[in-house]
């Protein structure tokens, strides 16, 4: 069997599997569910995928993965996205914390933590942002003090997605307050149910409570929960952020381009179909060209990761362009819809509702690095332009 034949067969089997479960886990099953109910559905769906060889498709079988290829993963993800399954709710778990465990944890830790995550039994979060640090990861102030074989955590994190549902989280903590800003941090993972951990949901503009503030009050964790060397946490966190930028931008959580084309065909501008207006056609063409370019960047990045190389700064391009394009598409759609476009439905999904996608747009443009930070990364690490003024890199 040729590679093309194999992939065609794989796609047919995957689609048949997805069609079988769409009614129980797809769009209709998610209608009017609360966030907690959606998370529970997502975990059950992940378990179904794991039992059928479609969870963590490229990961090793010894850790619960399917041992497949990147092309198989892309094929399955493309087909899965068409049915509205709640896979995005576990995107952080499987996109950042658990891959970091696969790369940096001990063999015993990998066996303990990776398979339950693959089966959807345990959920992870990423605790990087802090109230006084904004997008400046190196300004983290949460303290970790050595106490024998353990560490004691004190401080606060914020904007932590789905923390209220998570079992474990990864974080960076300041372990040497006298070291230069970028060199006194260490990378840990923590039990979110441990004594001293308090999670408080934050209600966003669209009334959803996806993110939280998390408080650590003398939380004790063993040194075995440290990933990487002491005071090497900034480098580890940057590797995680490179992964995050792919996850944040590749989640494909806005209405698809075809929905915008259908809307432009259905709506009228000055008595004619909006699709015939030159400005509308130009916007749609721009969106199409952007999406094709992003697909090429994404596939190239996946090949790099598959080859065992670290993700590069191109993730910043992908995240920046994808977030801007999604917001632009939602804005154009609302313009075409007129007054009816601003009708608010608290149960609407960003994947199917332009109003919800537009409201959620600014969140996506902050998560994983603001537009301004990404522009700096692109300018300095890809274009080789002189570094921006960085007073924060001066010795403390």
From TrEMBL:
Cofactor dependency:
FAD
Annotated Gene Ontology cellular components are: plasma membrane
Q: Does the keyword Repeat apply?
A: no
Q: Which domain of life is it from?
A: Bacteria
Q: Where is the Acyl-CoA dehydrogenase/oxidase C-terminal domain?
A: 231-383
Q: Where is the Acyl-CoA dehydrogenase/oxidase N-terminal domain?
A: 9-121
Q: Which UniProt keywords apply?
A: FAD, Flavoprotein, Oxidoreductase
One Pfam family named in its UniProt record: Acyl-CoA_dh_N
Spans traversing the lipid bilayer? none
- Recorded GO MF terms: flavin adenine dinucleotide binding; oxidoreductase activity, acting on the CH-CH group of donors
Q: Does the keyword Oxidoreductase apply?
A: yes
Q: Mind telling me which InterPro entries this protein's record contains?
A: Acyl-CoA_Oxase/DH_mid-dom, Acyl-CoA_Oxase/DH_mid-dom_sf, AcylCo_DH-like_C, AcylCo_DH/oxidase_C, AcylCoA_DH/ox_N, AcylCoA_DH/ox_N_sf, AcylCoA_DH/oxidase_NM_dom_sf, Mycobact_Acyl-CoA_DH
Q: What Enzyme Commission number(s) does the record list for this chain?
A: 1.3.99.-
According to the entry, every stretch annotated as the Acyl-CoA oxidase/dehydrogenase middle domain falls at: 125-219
Protein family: Belongs to the acyl-CoA dehydrogenase family.
- What protein is this chain from? Acyl-CoA dehydrogenase
Lineage from the top down? Bacteria, Pseudomonadati, Pseudomonadota, Alphaproteobacteria, Caulobacterales
């Amino acid at each position: 069997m040729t590679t093309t034949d194999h992939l065609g067969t794989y796609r047919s089997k995957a689609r048949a599997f997805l069609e079988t479960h769409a009614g129980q886990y797809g769009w209709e099953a998610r209608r009017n569910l609360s966030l907690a109910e959606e998370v529970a559905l997502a975990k059950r769906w992940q378990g179904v995928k794991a039992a059928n060889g479609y969870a963590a498709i490229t990961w090793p079988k010894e850790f619960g993965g399917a041992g497949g290829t990147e092309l198989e993963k892309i094929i399955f993800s493309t087909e899965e996205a068409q049915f509205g399954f709640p896979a995005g709710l576990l995107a952080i778990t499987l996109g950042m914390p658990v891959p970091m465990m696969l790369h940096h944890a001990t063999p015993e830790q990998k066996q303990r933590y990776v398979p339950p995550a693959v089966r959807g039994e345990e959920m992870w979060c990423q605790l990087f942002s802090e109230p006084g640090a904004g997008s400046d990861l190196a300004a983290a102030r949460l303290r970790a003090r050595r106490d024998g074989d353990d560490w004691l955590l004190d401080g606060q994190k914020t904007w932590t997605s789905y923390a209220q549902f998570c079992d474990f989280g990864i974080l960076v903590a300041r372990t040497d307050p006298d070291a230069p800003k970028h060199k006194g941090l260490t990378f840990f993972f923590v039990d979110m149910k441990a004594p001293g951990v308090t999670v408080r949901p934050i209600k966003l503009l669209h009334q959803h409570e996806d993110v939280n503030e998390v408080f650590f009050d003398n939380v004790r964790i063993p040194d075995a929960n440290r990933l990487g060397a002491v005071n090497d946490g900034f480098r580890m966190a940057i590797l995680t952020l490179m992964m995050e930028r792919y996850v944040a931008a590749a989640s494909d959580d806005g209405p698809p381009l075809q929905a915008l084309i259908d809307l432009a065909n259905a709506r009228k501008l000055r008595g004619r179909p909006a699709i015939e207006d030159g400005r509308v056609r130009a916007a749609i063409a721009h969106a199409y060209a952007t999406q094709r370019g992003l697909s090429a960047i994404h596939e190239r990045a996946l090949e790099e990761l598959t080859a065992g190389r670290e993700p590069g700064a191109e993730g910043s391009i992908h995240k920046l362009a994808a977030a801007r394009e999604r917001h632009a598409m939602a804005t154009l759609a609302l313009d075409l819809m007129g007054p009816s476009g601003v009708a608010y439905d608290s149960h609407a999904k960003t994947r199917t509702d332009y109003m919800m996608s537009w409201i959620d747009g600014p969140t996506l443009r902050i998560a994983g690095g603001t537009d301004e930070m990404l522009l700096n990364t692109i300018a300095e690490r890809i274009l080789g332009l002189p570094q921006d003024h960085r007073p924060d890199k001066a010795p403390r």
